[in-house]
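dumping these here so i dont lose them again. two proteins, back to back, each one seq then structure tokens. dont judge the mess
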Amino acid sequence: MQRRMFISSAVAASALPVLARGNHNVLLLGDEVMLAYKPGLLKLIGDKAECTFVEFPKVGKPDWAAFCSTHIYGKGYEVIHFSYGREIMFHESGKPRAAQNEIWGIYSGLIQALEKSGAFLVGCTTTPVRGKMAGYASGVDWAYGSKFKQQLGPNGVKVNDLGDYTRTRLSEMVQNNSNLPTKVGAQLMAEQVANAVFEAFNEGSDPNRPRILIVGDSIVGGYYGATRNLFAGEAIVYSGGTTYNEAKPDWKKIVDEYMEKGGERGWDIIQFNWGLHAMKHVDEDNKTLDADQPGARVQFPPEKYLQHLELFVKELKRTGAQLVFATTTPIPEDCPGSIVYLDQEAYNAPARKLMKEQGIPVNDLYAFAKPQLKELQIPHNVHVHFTAYGSEQLAKQDYSVLSPLL
């Protein structure tokens, strides 16, 4: 299943420090991909934190004690967001810088060294390569990346699964024969990293304050930060994913993840959407495919979509939260790729009817955005995403619907 992963709040509470309120001191560790999304990330973080960026050493046997002494210890970082892996996966003389039997110890040593800083740790998975790239071997990337992710949760490190998030949107987010992001990819990566950092800030907030979970696709990633800001002092806002390329989504497992993320405190409100990835085109093996390619088909026709949406609602009711359904935002008429213009009312209209039957309020983001789409969406975009201004307007719409429910 291709979704963003979360560790349980119980693990987080026992293993991670409580953050002070106010402005924060954040360290971001990574590689050239991090530097590519750095400008967008700084805009999104704004004056909420002072951010420092440091590249990991590109060696096979890093000295973590020396690295942390130089760049981390004694500098007062409250949050450390780190992405590590490409540095040791890279092939030299036909083999990776670090052998497979060495990487577990390297990852473990890194986490132990970072823990000594006393900072709140967020581990970010390595983003994938699209096509062929010098020093790249897909099997090694997958094996090394999996072992890195396996180390995070059990060590109480919050997970930002940027690698999985990017893999499901590879042609949109990554340049061909490269690991560097496209312009849109850099924006989406910056949004995901900013959201992970904001959620780290949330961990130190008032536990008695109302808690809101907003789940959906990458559109949520765009407006989450602005929504969080609007609710400052009123509620704590988190974000999450749904499903992307799964032919038969396991809605129970998906909702179990939301409940695990909510911990004993749970959620007061869950706003949920599932739509754009139901409307996208896939091949016979359910892999994303441009709509104009032979064999392309819509992943979930309207009838199947409604059936799965009913199952999603049934599982969400187990949370005991006030549910709010957000309609799927508009697809522009000239949109190329796997998600192209179609009759979205064939999806949104039955969804609205279902929510009325179930007594679930609707945040009609489609109706809100449609009349002003040219002002809100990125012009000549290769997909369906919104400008910073557009995301701010969607956030205001969220606030107008959700705040009266607190």
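---- next one ----
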Amino acid sequence: MLYLTSLLFTVAFQPPGFFNNTRTYVPHITKDDTRFRTALVLENPTADEQFVLVRAVAANGAALGEYEWTLPAGAREKKWRDDLFGDTTIDYMVLNKVSEVVAGVIYEPIAQPQNALRIGDTSETATHWRVYPSNWNDNFDGLILLNTLCLNLNAVVTYHQADGTQIGEQQRYALAPGHKALLNLGEAFTFEADAYIQVRADRRVMAMAVKGSKAADAATSFLVGNLAKAMDSYPDLRAELAEARQKWAAVSRENGYTFQQAFRCFCPQEVTQITQIGVNGAVIDSLSYVESGEQVPVSAVKRYYSVEEMFALIEQELGRADYMEVDFDAETGFPTFIGIDPSDCVADEEYSIVSQGLANR
């Protein structure tokens, strides 16, 4: 059991590094042969000129080139793969851009350019993915797995009947940082109606499914991507959260409640002091440091969480944190411990919230 009085904390935060939220990906680039080709489209809806850095990367994570793209205010521009990087064979692109710039990729059947399809770039990762393939007689399904983290990861790809029964042999992948795997599903598995592909990874992985025509010159030829569906990375914890909320809501607290809260993090000492919190109507109305009895400065009030706000924080982080651990009181649903690591690739930004001493007013 953790006790607030035993917690020790120190220093500072790390700035965003190589892997950050301004980075998005085009996980699949066609080879510009006689079948399909790839173009990158950027749109700048802002009133300012924007700079976008486009990097070409090989499947083993090796950097193959960079293209510095200056996009005028309000502009929309399209460039083919060979306009950006010549005849270099590349496997995926990484875009560093401000969030307002909209990026997309066009896959065009060379023999039928009117059938070109556009999809967006992506930054979504998950530990669990599903793909619903088509009949592989006329079309093909490809599955791309991309490790966008700074740590190694392992992924297992399996094929399942609608009732969850596994079909065939599983496919295993060990991906180093920046590495990409491409799997032709029709070659790895035997098609069955209503079946689905499942991806399970020990860390968040980016997945993209591409579907296309085997006959690229047919009048109805196509190539489209982003068909992989991210599943919940923390289904058990999400169920625990729902149960805790029900327990909490089942008890009337007409006059509010009090409890103590402290942070465990690489933070200044004033952040980590044990604090007495009073709440009325789900809103914090009193804050004081337990050791000194002094009121918490107004500038620091926003860092503290009521129970209702802790529930909201947990729900928010379930969709994006690389690691989470939460403990709830078995009787009341009160969150006694919340541990969050937003990113495996950033040092010292993980933190925990420890709460105890719940009492009704």
